[in-house]
């Protein structure tokens, strides 16, 4: 971030915080994700903040910063462990894109370290039990909510709404995807009965949850949240494709599935299994879209290009899951 | 044999070994991820170049016999024409397996480990 932007940001933060003497001591890029940028701000008065803003090219399916800020506020009020949201700036002229500021939280989110560590979150069982409790708090947020109006009308049948959304996504893509269709058709035929939709984080997985030795320090990355079946979050976390190689620990490669379910309460295992297949299909479709950004020239990038090559492995897993479910 | 050896696959494998064995250890930690991505890209491209592409024409022919082109095949699956119990279910499942196995052999050979 250049000097001019930094000066504009300082002025804006002074007005937003009511602290006319506020000064930015340090500013470093924490992570340049495919979609967002996170900047660590060291602010006078020993305040540690994070500024979150958009990359130039963003996925059409993710919420903007204003919506993500509203979701963080709702989650914070519901008792979910999130970084406290502080200020929102929708004016793109300050740093080049809308941004918000939240408190900086210590901890580790890096998936490959988290699945290998035995002590994150107080040990594997305690950790996934805590994750179950976090999800249960998220799922207490229910429609209608004026502050979350941008999420649209909740679906009458979240499972069939998922199938319809995924088919629309496939119809927008460059190539036909017979294996993903195969999985979606199976999901359509075996969809469990409708449940009332609640707030679903929709990217609650290892890598997006910050942990320390004592427990969860922050649930991150709210930009895909929607009204859906609460089991969707449990299925996404348990899906084999999000265990980062530690398959034996079925809850995100971190801990046992049973402890996650206990922490959450009221879990229907069959629904979670349905959503685990759904998770593989959705991740494959997202991977196709990410590779398409490279292929189309929107953003030439090796990581995006390689993400496309995840798709065949996910398809193989989808075929094996459908086969096993058909035989059961 | 009019091309000059060593040919592409040998060059790619040798270049990848230099990257992983000589360059990666000398790189700063924050560049290791990029170097591993380059090694992965070389590996995928090498497997693609080495694969006998005959499977593709064979798969297209089997697909045409079942439903038509890939788009028609996908639409037929969506419409339930190859549901369990329907005529062609086993053929469609076998075709999807064969296509995906060939795709994984290039992109993600480890996925086939338990297949």
TrEMBL record, chain A:
Residues 28-255 form the Aminoglycoside phosphotransferase domain. CDD domains: ACAD10_11_N-like. SUPFAM superfamilies: Protein kinase-like (PK-like). Coiled coil: none annotated. This is Phosphotransferase family protein. It comes from Neoroseomonas eburnea.
């Amino acid at each position: 971030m250049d000097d001019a932007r930094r000066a504009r940001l300082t002025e804006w933060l002074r007005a937003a915080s009511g602290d006319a003497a506020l000064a930015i001591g340090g500013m470093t890029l924490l992570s340049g994700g495919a979609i967002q940028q996170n900047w660590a701000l060291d602010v006078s008065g020993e305040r540690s903040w994070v500024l979150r803003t958009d990359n130039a090219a963003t996925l059409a399916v993710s919420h903007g910063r204003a919506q993500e800020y509203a979701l963080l506020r709702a989650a914070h009020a519901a008792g979910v462990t999130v970084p406290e949201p502080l200020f929102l700036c929708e004016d793109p002229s300050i740093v080049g894109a809308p941004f918000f500021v939240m408190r900086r939280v210590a901890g580790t989110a890096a998936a490959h370290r988290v699945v290998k560590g035995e002590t994150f979150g107080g040990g594997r069982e305690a950790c996934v039990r805590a994750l179950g409790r976090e999800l249960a708090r998220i799922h207490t947020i229910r429609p209608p909510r004026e502050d979350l109006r941008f999420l649209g009308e909740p679906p009458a049948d979240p499972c069939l709404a998922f199938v319809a959304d995924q088919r629309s996504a496939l119809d927008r893509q460059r190539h036909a995807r017979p294996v993903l269709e195969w999985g979606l058709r199976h999901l359509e035929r075996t969809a469990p009965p409708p449940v009332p939709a609640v707030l679903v984080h929709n990217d609650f997985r290892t890598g997006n949850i910050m942990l320390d030795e004592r427990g969860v320090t922050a649930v991150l990355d709210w930009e895909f949240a929607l009204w859906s079946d609460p089991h969707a979050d449990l299925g996404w976390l348990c899906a084999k494709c999000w265990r980062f190689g530690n398959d034996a620990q079925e809850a995100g490669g971190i801990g046992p599935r049973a402890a996650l379910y206990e922490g959450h309460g009221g879990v229907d295992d069959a629904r979670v299994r349905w959503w685990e297949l759904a998770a593989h299909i959705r991740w494959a479709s997202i991977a196709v879209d990410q590779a398409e950004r490279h292929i189309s020239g929107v953003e030439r990038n090796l990581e995006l290009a390689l993400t496309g090559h995840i798709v065949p492995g996910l398809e193989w897993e989808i075929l094996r899951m459908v086969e096993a479910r058909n035989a059961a | 044999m009019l091309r000059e050896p060593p040919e592409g696959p040998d060059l790619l494998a040798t270049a990848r070994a230099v990257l992983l064995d000589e360059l990666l250890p000398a790189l700063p930690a924050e560049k290791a991820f990029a170097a591993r991505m380059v090694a992965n890209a070389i590996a995928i491209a090498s497997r693609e170049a080495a694969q006998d592409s005959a499977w593709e024409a064979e798969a297209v022919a089997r697909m045409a016999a079942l439903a038509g082109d890939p788009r028609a095949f996908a639409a037929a699956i969506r419409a339930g024409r190859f549901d369990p119990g329907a005529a062609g279910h086993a053929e469609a499942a076998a075709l999807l397996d064969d296509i995906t196995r060939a795709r994984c052999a290039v992109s993600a050979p480890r996925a086939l480990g338990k297949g």
